# Entry
Amino acid sequence: MRALRYPLIGTAVLLLAAPLPVRAGERGVIGGQTVKVADVPWTVALASRERFGPTRSGQFCGGALVSRSTVVTAAHCLSREVLGVEMSEAKDLRVIVGRDDLRGGAGKEIALKDAWVNPAFNPETNAGDVAVITLAEPVADKTPIALAKEGDVAYQPGTEAGVYGWGDMFGNGAYSPTLRGARVAVLEDAMCRQAYPGGPEGVYQPATMLCAGLPRGGRDACQGDSGGPLVARGRLVGLVSWGSGCAQAGRPGVYTRVSAVAALVWAHSIDPAPAAPPPAAPPPAQPSVAPPVRPPAAPSASPQVAPPAPGSGKRPGRRPL
Ligand code: 4AZ
# Structure
């Protein structure tokens, strides 16, 4: 992960429902598809043309708009390791909203009024990988996304989630000029505990991290997607943080667990935390914990269940990611 963070080498991307079957273990294949930013308007790009060059608007990380003036991203995105200089010296840092294609000028580039980088971020374990950006001007017409809270059902393993960004599409440094997304599943903590018990990339800590991907690989965030949103049941559940490579079987993506950092986010936001929504309708009568992968013999219509494994021949209808 550390090597992957060098700005000009790697950025991550996102993956959506694969247009073609993706074979397990195939390196550098990350299943994804184009997504319209209008459909995921809280997805933003972090950019610095000075640091990362002008093609692709200087994009180097992602983020999520959580209120009119507040963007959350990964702490490591604003580190000297990624920027090449201290954040205070990166004078042209911008948040880009409403731009599908980074080669164009649609949407808006907004300067930063302030940025709080979690001082407790640990670059050895990757724990605490969150930062809060205050925009120089509020965004009026974009819909912020709600942060998931502790105990949110969206964290149940098997829940389908979408990850979005402009990062590496194949694990080879081919950053996407256009916004992409991939449908993944929230995975059991045990999968990431096993994959990342303590090594050079980081250490999986379930209290503050979230494991997501497909057990067989094939869809994942990658370099350049860091800081970007992982969304389940309409809530922001994770921020792209780290992993070993991209989309490899048995090496899921690791995300900052948003529910664990939500209080920190609002403590560093100039906007108040939104009022709690009215109580939800009672849950449908179905097992509260869906299996991470749908057993082939028991297809279910539940939107919480991960899509069928590639190549299984069963493909859900296309839904917005
Ligand atoms: C990175 O270096 C990175 N596959 C982001 C996400 C993942 C790996 C690396 C997850 O920014």
